[in-house]
Amino acid sequence: MSTLQNFGFPAFQQDFDKGSSEDQELVALWTTNVTGWINQAIVGNPWNVMYASEQTFFYNPRYTDIPDGTAAAQITWFAFPNRLKQYLETGASPANIYNLQSAQILRLADTGYYQTPEVSANSFQSIPVEHSDLCPQVNWNSDQDNWQIYGPYGPRGWQDEYCEWSVTQDSSNNIIRVDFVCENPEYWYNLWKIDPEKVRTLYEDTLNYQMPSDQQISVALEDLQLTVNDPETGQPAYNPLNKWNCGPVSVRTGDSSNFSGGAMHLTSTPNTLQTELGLAGAATVQRTIGNNSPQELICCSQYGQNYRNSDPNIGVSVNRVVQGMGTPNIACLADPVGLYIQMPNFASYTVSSTVTLPEGATVADCWQIVRGEKVLTDPVTGEYFPGEYSDEQYQGVGNFILHAVFQIPQEWQDLNSNSLTLSDILIGGQPIEWAGQIAQTFKIALYARPISASNTPSQLSCVSTPADSSNQPLQLMYKSLWDAYYAINEPNPADQNLPLVSNTTFVVTTVEQGQSSIEIALTYSPSSDSPPIPTVEFSTVNDQDPIGNQDVDSNITATVVGGPTPVNYAVPGNSYPSDSYVLFLTLNIGSSAELGLRGVRITDPSQTPAPFVPALLNVVASS
Fold first, then answer.
1. Residue ranges of the domains in the chain?
2. Topology of the domain comprising 472-620
3. pLDDT at 137 over 80
4. Helices in 284-343 by DSSP H: which ranges?
């Protein structure tokens, strides 16, 4: 048996030389963050015992022994956004009121518009969003005053299955390349803190992969950053919706100074790794209704987003892993924690008869893995991680692809006068006109690792009324960063207001021993529409017991100097923006403050203090 010392990077991707100072710094930062997200998942959401008397059966592998040889279980779902089909496409069950055709859904998935001209009237429509209108099935006869414009918003927010893509076309509007990504944004925030130049290089190398010289881009640091400095690093802060990671379109024709767009990591607000972990944690709670229906279970437990391919399927699959086969389990995601593209099913792919192919060439040559790995060896079992992929070399294994490109190989172009486009590839007998046709042929996966539980989970009734989440801390960051991110509105086809702060992450805010007068922004769900000024307290370090009764750390003092002020944004992980409040704090960290992750709690006058929300602040040694 052993515990995990450090968390591996997604797909064990090695972006710095192994063992270098930058690599060691990134390992420490990544491990700190993943530890915090798992502890948040153990506690549940809403934070701290989720709903009355409910307990997750989620564990942290840094503090839980994993028996040697304990196998991981693969959980998969299709990459194409199922909610587009459910809410907008003809033939859905229950039937919707819009009845768009399949070709319109493919256009919508690729562009954010289901027909031309590309204006908001030809984009997303209003749909039911209230829990009572979605369960047991979506109710199209509900009060339309409670409906909202289809979300998530953002430049490609509707691509919400933990897979997003950007399409490159030639001057005749034929697709010549599609970049598919499932990389979590949190990793890129961490990488940027260590070395922005490394991020710039990776952007350039990845988005230029196998591209003709006249379509290659030059990425500048200024393209990737905000004008405000990150107080942790003293360098400009990362812009997750930068010039080369914004929207579903990559422009690579005409004047190279006008090139833009691309896909490097996930941007839809619910597509975060912290959200994936939180969903998996919530799904470990067993229910009296059983787990035979993904829709029934998500309605019962009230986690995630109804009708996605991902959330209901992740939930029911993790729930079954915990239930076990006669012996119950506790579960966590297997290291390396992440989201992974699986190899497409090429059975329905063919090549146009007019194409001259190199000897031995197949359609699979067009699928090119740029980041991640086709297969990985599980360090716990010594075998390949299991999955659904099979070919002559690998049978029944899983894939760990982070970024894949679908494009015509140059060897093919050389034999065909550089005239080929993806329309020369057929899927189901139809030429590729939309990237969504490709997305319908592959899945996304995560890997859970169950170990035997010491006690049997209770089967609880369905959630009727969520626990009181008043004064629940939501997100903590430096005030200068909050001000900068909140001031920028994200472009989106639905023409909805969405501040860029919605695309930040739960990367922990780091402060130093002895640091004083630190200006912090803390968002929360208040106890009333006119909340009083509360008390903000930070916990002592206790990573090994996130639901324990941590004490207040007297070495950290927080003074409210502004707010509560109402704000509206999509808290990272949420599909829609919502109303919350922000407090502006001044923090003072004692020189003897213990190093490590801290929880936060917010308490109104005369209110009984709630448990701490784990891992929103990290204290490190003074530099």
1. 10-78+270-336, 472-620
2. Immunoglobulin-like (2.60.40)
3. yes
4. 294-301, 310-323
